Batch of 4 targets.
Target 1
Amino acid sequence: MITPEFLEITAAIVPDRLAIIFEDKRITYEQLLERVNRLASGLTALGVQQGDTVTLIQVNTNHCIETYFAVAKLGAIYVPLNFRARPNEFEYMINTADAKVVLAGDRYVSILNNLKDKLPSVRHYIALDGKAEGWVDVESLISTHEPDPPYTEIADDATTVLMYTAGTTGFPKGVMLHHNSFTSYVLNNVTPVDMEEEERNILTVPLYHIAGTQAVMAAVYGGRTLVMERQFDPEEWMALVQTEKANRAMMVPTMLKQLLDNPDFHKYDLSSLKVITYGAAPMPIEVITRALEEFPGCQFINAFGQTETAATITALQPEDHDIPPGLPEEERAKRLKRLSSVGKALSDVEIKVVDDYGKDLPPGVVGEIVARGPRVMAGYWKDEEKTKNTKRGGWIYTGDLGYVDEEGYFFLAGRASDIIIRAGENISPEEVEVALNAHPAVEESAVFGIPDVTWGETIAAAVVLKASQTATGEELSEWCRQRLASYKKPEMVVFLEELPRNALGKILRKDLRAQYGESKTPA
């Protein structure tokens, strides 16, 4: 099965159901399919053929969804780019992808006009927010072509998405995802469209990210209505949930915390929400426990995965979030600890924990999490060496450290690249962060290693204090020493107003290392 069939099947079953609610637009599934087919015909007229790459740079809009399915219908490859990238990164990604067509929102037109001489593969530029000189207007392209694109025979294992993901160093890596990457997950984990049951899914995670793409695939196959927000804004999000009666949401921890901390949180009626899925970054226990209290009628799911695995490979299910009052203390402690896990493996993937030599590790022992199944990436675009390092014997080496318990629940212990090695001792940043975050004055922290001639690396911590709270570096270092092995205490503490994060809320330790790596200011 290929992904455009998700849309075709749903449009046949519930043609009049709303597929997309976006600002002043209401697009039914029948209308969405017609717009996709017309756009596919328009792209064909511009010369797009099977195997060509088509790049899009835009915040979340209906055009992102329409473009993906139109490109997929032609057997071409869709390349969504991070709209927060710098011009030199756009140049790198467009050129390495050999993009034939670029679609972009208004705010990126001038950037791309300045890059045109450096983008030799691009034949056409399509404007998504109205007419621009020298650009094709997407709405004109759709309206002037018939909804009958040429039929293309497409294999299930053909690459359909080339998704760039940040590397630990240098420019992003292009991850090749095939149709099976998405159909395997969706067919095994999502309930198909129901003529009687309707759901509305609010979509705020960016569509250049695998979490956003997975959410779209699941929604279309499930016949859900997508309530779209260009970019996450807490007030707008709550207003949309209240007005559109959204039932489902995908959040990252920082989004959920921003909602809970918003002074107007209790002014909105969010009772329509029945399922909140969260992931893409670690969820602090205090945030999820508070969310469970504030959304009493809502089920929570923690989804863990990465671009190379086409998103979710483990999930902590709603029943795992249930901690009823009156439990024996031992059982309560067990369930609270489980809230810090990422759950169990999904049915269409195999997951295990291995040592540095690829040997399976027993429960409770930290190693690298590896995964395999029909939906893992084909490889990295034009990079056989990185592909060989990451995909070995069919297994994706995720770069995430963790362990599995006796009951099959996986727990993360940081990124392999983030591990601090001090005098030969491996130190998990997350372990030190847990200790720091328990201090009554600390709002959040990020721990990272910095080079040291004597020890190889020493431990540094960037700390954000709670409002009206104070603490010194010496105090926090001593706090950790009392709770961890002495060699795990931070030897340098810097205080920040906020931690650097990417669009999905992941802390950018590499930015902290780059900024403070040469500093030797003691705690």
Note: The longest helix spans residues 29-45.
Target 2
Amino acid sequence: MLSQVKSCILFGLKGLVIGVEVDVSNGLPSFEIVGLPQTTVRESRERVRAAIRNAGFQFPVRRITVNLTPPELRKEGTHLDLPIALGILAANGQVDPSGLGRAVFIGPVSLDGSVVSMPGVLPMAVAVHAEGLGPLVLPAENVPEARLVEGLHTCGVTCLADAVGLLNKAQGDPSKMVASPSCVSDVRTSAFRQGKGETGSVPAYDMADVKGNSMARRALEIAAAGGHNLLLTGPPGTGKTLLAGCLPGILPSMTRQEALEVTMIHSVSGLVPGGGGLIKERPFRAPHHSISVSALIGGGSGRIYPGEVSLAHNGVLFLDEITECDRRTLESLRQPLEDREVKISRSSVMATLPAGFMLVAAANPCPCGYRGDHLKACTCTPAMLTRYQNRLSGPLLDRFDLSVSIYRDEQGFVLDESAREEDSSSVRERVEAARQRQIRRLEREGLFSNAQMNLSQIKRYCRMDRDARVELAQLQEKWGLSARAISRVSKVARTIADLGERDVIALSDIREAFMLRTKEKHSP
């Protein structure tokens, strides 16, 4: 007898609905899975066999053939256990096959027949809803995550017996599927319920902890407001890491679309916090400087997994001690910084992952760390300094919109405990107001920040008064600025004007943007 069950797989960050065809026929007992199954899928034969028996059902001692369609796509993941098990039971007459219909089943199955939680539920739920299918039957623990998809009929199950009960009770009508009281009941909710299922984190540092360093504070505020890349240089102990740690507390809130994008990426990576709700706070990723190219950019031999640049999408990627990173690893950042996405190709798989992150980096000014410091003399030779500066290539340095050097004062102190500085909440108010101006201005372009603008959009939205235009032209001629440099100065100036609540970029905005971009620019 033949049965057909619908399921879903991940292709990069996208879910794809697939078919699971199961044929149970006479012949020597065997269990074969075809249709480009990867190791985790092939291993499901033993899990499914034990789960069916331990759940109290009869495993057919016959020839079993499972075909995963379409056959040209690689199938990976333990979440195909549930549809394979139900397909076998339906083909063997232990499950009413009429209830399979438009229902989609996903979920790993343990040897005792229980259905356990899994990563990647959100993009799969989005795909199921886009195909007009449903209900989506999935592990009960993952139902809150699937609830983020508006109008999707979901049913949570805790074991194989619950899934069989759903099908038999539905009597051929999937719309009648309702989970048992021991599971998560049928859900029809709208996405993004405010205050429910949302996750976030408390910022590690507050801007009030940063005493003095007015230029660095200003650069941090501008970077947060416009989503600009920022390079911080200075001797050890001058507060570079402290400043970067203040960013989560002043970053603007995400829009609903941004939050959904972030949650989908973290869902695929299995990083959605407990409860499976919407991730509300912008990501702040800080990998160690020994990180590899694949861990930074993403990849995988079969299924493609997001790297740090994708996990930082719509948030911050902080690279402390950036000059200690491998040169090849750093150069791999150039393409995602420019295109705001990553294209990963494997032998039979190619995927595009979002990578619209804000890069913040910190570095010492020289190998010994004390170049320009008033507390300790630098011991580096010119040759050592040249080699050190060459660790960051010109094209990579050119992608930093803001570059700030932090030094101690003449007495060797960075922190003035008597000074009273603004706290993060006050700075965030200005950042939020500036970002809202950007969203209103750029909403027709589908953009959320000034840093996302391309050349044509810069020409359209970066309106300058006459003095500002003349100043920019003079700076370009005097310093030989490239087209990329001019565009980045213009975008930063647009953000400065937004913080000042100005619709037109003024002369002072251009000068400040240029100063913050070029100060000690060639010192890593």
Note: Confidence is low (pLDDT under 50) at residues 180-202, 410-415, 520-524.
Target 3
Amino acid sequence: MKKIFISKVFLISILSLFLMVSCNQDFLDQKPTDELSELDVFQDPTLIESYINGVYGSVRHPFVGSNGVMKGEFVDEAHDMWYGFLEFNNSLQTSDDLQGWRYEDWASNYRSIRKCNVFFEKVDQGKFNDVLIDGKTLKDRLTGEAHFLRAFLYTQLVNLYGGVPIIKTTYGLTDDFKIARNTYSDCIKFIVEECDLAAGLLPLDNTGGNYGRATKGAALALKSQVLIYAASELHNNNPKFSGFANPALLGYTSGTAQERWTAAKNATKAVMDLNLYSLYKPEPATGAEATQNFIDLFIADRTTEDIYVKFFIPKEGGTSFWDDNYGNNLALVSGPNGFHLWGQNAPSGNAVDAYEMTDGSKFSWANPAQAALPYENRDPRFYSSVFYEGVKWRPRPPDVAIMDPVGVIQVGTWETWDNATNSMVEVPGLDTRNSPIEGFNGGYMGYYLRKFIDPSVDGQFSGMKVPWRYFRYTEILLNYAEACIELGQDAEARTYINMIRKRAAMPVITESGAALRDRYRQERRIELYMEDKRFYDVRRWVLGPETYIDLTAVDVRYKLNPDNTTATVPTITPKVHQTRKWDDKSYFFPIMRDEMNKNDMLVQNPGY
């Protein structure tokens, strides 16, 4: 009887619900009280600004991955190393295979591009006033920011894949999603147009709470970078892909390189002619001062070089996460593990060896004097960018200070004699993989990154507010010098390269022609080290085989002397950490299988 009673109650409830729905046909159309529709958002200027903030937040920077975890491996030489772990085989890459690569990717960029497209379709429905802030109305500023962000997102795609589909409208669920890739030339033209539109709508500078949003200078700087990359060898009749049936997807098939370098030079000069930016502390009195200036440049909130910067705000209350200024959660402050930091940002030996001597000559392990004391008399930027054995940094945390009260980097191993066992005992340094202090966090390379690391940060979960500089003025000067070199204007190029070297307290360069191009590329590598440029530079210059050589590290050892005392000066020996072999297909990323399956109009890149 009880079961029958429950069944009747259930039946009555269903009938009652049916009658309620029948009496009120709008029942299923009720608006949720805890959600905002796109129409609601674009009726409120504050919500529209928050919407654009969300697009800012989706734009990646090298120290964060898609899951919000700080991933500093994804830049430069270490960026390259992580890239080498991925398996790109016969177009079989799927989103799951990208777990080790959480930076730029096809799907996430197109999701953000769609947000920009929604903005352009809805913004004219918005209710704005004509109040000027920093010389621009809110509607103009936000529209300019949307153009800038869309250009930025397409730039990330083009840098990885070549020509991609240009999508300027939003798709509904019933729409045909199939669309072919646009040519590389079309994509560059579109990005440049977006940058020009943005530059015309954005303020020269932002003040107050708007500082850090895109400006006219940011849009022009992006245009400079895009045209510099586009003029480079990879995209100009590259013979490596002469057999590919769709060469227009990878680069230009008409016009001349000179025309493109001239356009790049002019675009870069437009940033310089704004007269808003300058080199940070360009005339140091000594090498030590140049080192300190370079340290300060990357931990300061604002500098004279800043063109487009992303800021971060540490959370209060001892939480383990920190937020960027658009709400992204980040975690794990990097640095030597013996300071209770996350030791994942480890420069390669290849990168360290690239730093010149103070007289401008190359460093070489084959030079006995240099090999004996490899960290003496190096480019001042080396000391501001790299932690190495024996350099003093800051006091250790209290629990570690009893082992090292001075705060000296220890990536070596001490060979000591144990009289009790009449044998040698190895004592690992505090910042090694065998350290008693979180050895699992230690690096493998014998180095740690100093650049960007705020010495005031106390613990890997304490939060760090060092901003990320997408564009700074030094890159603009380097872009200008590169365009001059490619146009045969060597004297003008040397002027700007030497301005940068003077700021670094390094001697001027005097080369011309191909030798000048080599010195420029060396200077760019050092000056922009770990700023997410090298990964793309070696590709656009088509230097894969020369660059993707075996990854090196160093073994640092305080050897046991014949009298059973321990040497006070370490023996430092280079070693191979990872063997690598370049494959020309790696100049471009593969389009993921998921995307190819959804859209049979897509053409895969060569080699996959």
Note: The longest helix spans residues 138-161.
Target 4
Amino acid sequence: MSAGESENVTEVRSAADSATAGRVRRIVLWAALILAVAGVWRGILAAAMPCMSRDAVLYCWYARDLGNEGLGLLKAGEYQQHPLFPLTILGVQRTLRALGAADSPATWQASGQAVVWLAGMLLVLAAALLTMRIVCVMELPVCPGRSALLALALAAVLPLNTWLSADVMSDQLHALLYLLAVALLLSLGSWRVALVCGLVSGLAYLTRPEGVVVCVAGVAVLLAQVRTLRWRTVAVRTLALLVGFAACATPYIAATGQLSPKVDKETLGDFQAAVGFPPAPSTDAGETAQAALNRLDLPWYGLVPFVLYTTFRAGRIVVPLLALPPLLHLRRRLARPPLLGLSICLAAHLSLATFLLGHHGYLQPRHTLVAVLLLLPFAAIFLAHLLSDLSASGRRTLGSVIIGLCLLPLMLYSLRIPNAADRFIPAAVAWLRQHDPQIDGKLLVGGASQRRIAFYVGLRMQPWPENEPTLERRFAELRRHIVGSRPDYFAIETGPGDECQGNDELLVQLQADDEITGHLVETHVHHARGDTALHVWEFAW
């Protein structure tokens, strides 16, 4: 090669390196901008949210009880959650108290929101990391950086992510750990990687029981490689994976004596005994004292279509729809490493959602969040491939418009304020505090939604089984709880919603009961969304 040719080659390489460096800088700048906007908007939603959701308040309640009673509380029958998320809330709350914050419900809520905000931001990065890992490990013909950037954008504006990053729910922390474990699962190239994958999977399990799925999928992936790897290598990596998971999970399982409280039948017996309430008479096997939920009675052939509908709803159609072309293209590789583990996790979560729907008649979009997040990298890969093709044909502007149109519906839904319809809860809390300055420590009988009132005001809470199958049994149980525990306050919501169905009739029957109304001091009504109303009764026994 002549000197002139050598100089030309050097110039070409230098130009290529400069172009690559410029592309990397643009990707980093766009990623920083997306994260900044996502973080600010999640903070705005957290500040604008009127109150926590009915499930979210449980995590703050459990965190507070863990701080007061210690880890022995995990054995209590009423404790129905895995401990990592409440423990992180407790840690942040203790830190805020050390910095001078008051020990108040507002501090507990702020602590929980700080945890989910940070977890939500890291989850956006984890979605980008998983996407880049899939592109690199699978050697797909798309730009890893561009795919990761599009995954970052999709995860940042996914409505479930934004809402759950403002409310105090465990989904964001669990999804973060889960996606990190799946990213490691794509290439268990050494026992060290397998060990870390097991540890992260164990942490996900300590947040929600579904975390065990990654560990099971990892074992399946390693066993599937017996033909390509020496059996001793497979055994060492499998052992490392199980050791990592066991290091996190075994202490919790040993302390509680069960794999998960969520797989056991829920009862209120222990909780009633703790507050001194007489035990309920024996009932038919299988009955639980869960909150009144909109339960669906679907035939067996309707379960899978409804789960798929809910998954598409959780991804606002955009994410699952965009993920379909890459999945169809890679269909022959989905059942083999390195995608085997991800495929098992996706199939397992859809199966768990189907079981939840069939067994309990209950399924919410957030229950399919992990499935949507596992589909999201493929949606980003499809968009990256589409943008590359359009750019190559000189239609880059059209590609940008298409991406904007895909992100727009997600962004519009993300503008909604979580729990905006529950503004009557802070209104009732303010009335109670003004009405009764000595209210702290008094007893409230109510349902799952009214548990928030007890938390914010500082009341003791006596729940009643809202899901009795007939109105007569619901009234009998409610009357027994009121007469038996002699509460200072009783709260119930009425209106057209499924979770309020029959409550109007219950109030009429309670008002006709002389033993109850004879002790009624005052009734206060807070009107909420539509015809929904919150009724608060005060008693003097």
Note: The mean pLDDT is 89.
